[in-house]
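Please complete every field before forwarding. Incomplete forms are returned to the sender.

SECTION A: IDENTIFIERS
Entry label: holo-312
Bound molecule: nicotinamide-adenine-dinucleotide
Molecule representation: SMILES string

SECTION B: INPUTS
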Amino acid sequence: MKGKRILITGIAGFIGSNMAEYFLDENEIIGVDNLSSGRMENLRDLEGNKNFILHINDVKNNDELSKLMKGVDVVIHLSANPDVRVGYDDPIVDFRENTVATHSVLEAMRKNDVKEIIFSSSSTIYGIPTILPTPENYGPLKPVSHYGASKLAAEGFISSYSSMYGFTSSIFRFANVVGKRGTHGVIVDFINKLKKDGKVLEVLGDGTQSKSYVDVQDVISGIDLLHGKGDGIFNLGTAGRTTVMEIADLVIKKESPGARIKLMGGPGGGGWAGDVKVMSLDIKKAQSFGWKYRMESTDSVRNAIEELGDKR
Ligand SMILES: NC(=O)c1ccc[n+]([C@@H]2O[C@H](COP(=O)([O-])OP(=O)(O)OC[C@H]3O[C@@H](n4cnc5c(N)ncnc54)[C@H](O)[C@@H]3O)[C@@H](O)[C@H]2O)c1
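SECTION C: PREDICTED COMPLEX
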């Protein structure tokens, strides 16, 4: 993207801050964040740039959001409750922060005639798929977490708004995203736990959970290349999968050699209710448009451990 006015929701988060850095050179960026999980320090490198402005706002506040949409060319909608686990004890949070919030973004766009949206969806919309790697046309879609359900509902509204009001929409279904400034997920959890107690690492589930981890820069290059192309729905993942035990071993080796692993178990061997134990996405569709990942799953994990370890 070049020469656009881009509004990014969730800009102070992990993916948002990396995305803003990437697009800022050649575009004007309006950032919106309520700092529920995002941090100001993630935006340190952007401060003072004349093409960047930050608004501390909740995207569900439609009046305020609508004011910010004036003259915007593209919305990159990333704000969400990003933690699948939270929804079990607080079953409304995903609906509110992912579905209602997305509806608010779409309404603010409609009122201001903003015509392009890029959305961060998730592999969780596929539920527990019988086909691995899972392609975009897999069905029936039966999410097993409120998070997955709320993302699928958000995809539905994006589709209806696109059809009824002529928006261009691009829905990207991410595998687990890792890398610089990661805020949550298994690598961050393990590093934080070992900083508290360097002798024992508690691992949720039975350790055999096996998922695909994609580097945040590969996700961003995919979005830049693929938005507005094809039918507008793309998986963004990478080759290979990495088990939770492999990640535990790699984090221990870097952070606290000799620490013991304590398996905590969990529903069906997963880490929590709603965890999908095995996940990998078919990325052939994105590749057919010329996108290439730089790092496969375990290399992305290794790189993220290096990026995150010393800086937390
Ligand atoms: N990280 C992953 O592995 C992954 C995988 C699949 C999909 N996603 C999706 O990508 C997006 C970005 O995820 P992330 O990993 O950067 O998470 P993150 O928590 O680091 O970033 C989310 C940001 O949204 C902000 N936010 C939340 N609710 C808000 C609201 N109502 N109004 C304004 N700001 C709000 C938070 O403060 C935070 O800065 C999310 O939509 C997430 O569901 C992430």
